[in-house]
Amino acid sequence: MKYLLKNGTVVTGEKSEQLDILVEGEKIVQVGKNLPSEEAQEIDVSGKILFPGFIDGHTHFDLEVAGTVTADDFETGTKAAILGGTTFVIDYASQDKGGHTLKEGLDKWHKKADDKCSCDYSFHMSIVEWNENTEQEIQDMIDHGITSFKLYMTYPAMIVNDCDMYKILKKLGKCGCFAGVHCENAGVIDALIAEAKKEGRLGPENHPLVRPDTMEAEAVHRLLVIAREADAPVMVVHLTNKKAFEEVMHARANGQKVYAETCPQYLLLDDSVYTKPDFQGAVYVCAPPIRKKEDQDCLWEALSREDIQTVATDQCSFTLAQKALGKDDFTKIPGGLPGVQTRGTLLYTYGVKEGRITQEQMCKLLSENPAKLYGVYPQKGVLAPGSDADIVVLDPEKESVISAATHAYNTDNNPFEGMRLRCGIDKVFLRGSLTVDDGRLVKEKLGKYIARGKKQM
Ligand code: DUC
Ligand code: ZN
Ligand code: ZN
User: I need a surface site. Which of 125, 153, 274, 304 has the fewest CB within 10 A?
Assistant: First the structure.
């Protein structure tokens, strides 16, 4: 199929220009002014803004958390993603503790995802322990196109000790790869949870109190000291607060290569959500927790200075019935929020339209930078000849209100419920196929596994 998208505003990380885009098969073949249509189907996109397909480098679909499984799997989750303009997700696959291989973990995640996805997909590999085979296994992952990894500094099933962390980071650094790290101080959080329980404080309003910003910042600091010793670049994933951000900036000032990711919930919500009545605070339970207004301000400023490289979602959704598993004990509430459907429209509405970031910066945060970080640039992340025709046609005039009654997730709650969107995703092309048209999903399950190269950032 050949399409000619006429007169849209084509955005890159550097500039926005009114141009035509010619798509043939899966690729963009030409970008320019007044391109002749020849036998291509012409689509008038004047007044629309064209972004490279958004890339979400942080999702959890079909993941077991706190004795239950996320409400959205790869099928429902990637439908929501593509409706929101995300054409490529990178989900976190995980090794199991107790002598299991990375390959076993990866095979498990392929089984969850293969043939079910409505957008393209890949995996980061979570490494939970080090043994004599880990170096070779990392190389095998890289050969399979898995070039980014994840380490957890919390959660009993995933936590890596400092010794293993050092060895893993050092190996990744030598390979030209890096790990995204979940930074929270597990030991102190356990102690704060024990105190809360002893005092009979069992409601969701206690969740942010037992996982304070200082304990995220401490873990970021420790990670960066270890990464320095290992001579390895790292990414702090889901960065939430000012103190943790200052640790990142401090390490950079010392010459370290540190990437940072944040998420819409940390930019747009504050910790008052945890005090909502009738157990509604449970909807917002995620780790790290949602922070304070001053932390939001810090994160927005960091985006505008380009000190944070990407905005991902940490999509990890549960129904209210699942959240109610923690009705009598907030530590049993499965942690996570849905987000893949509204990341782009929220960032455009509250970032670009409110003058906090430019649309070119939005393009870097959602498309160009993750493509470079995760080794798929310029196949993805840019609207240029030779690139995959992953194209988001955003309508800057459309208005809507986020609601669980209309969203595509398999959940009955939405953390952004009631928030106004001052734009809409009109069309999405996935490798040249029109998959979303007039805001509706018209083609499903065209997503394929994308083998990735090494970072280019
Ligand atoms: N945090 C969450 O809230 N859910 C899934 C994983 C994570 O790190
Ligand atoms: Zn995490
Ligand atoms: Zn996560």
Answer: 304
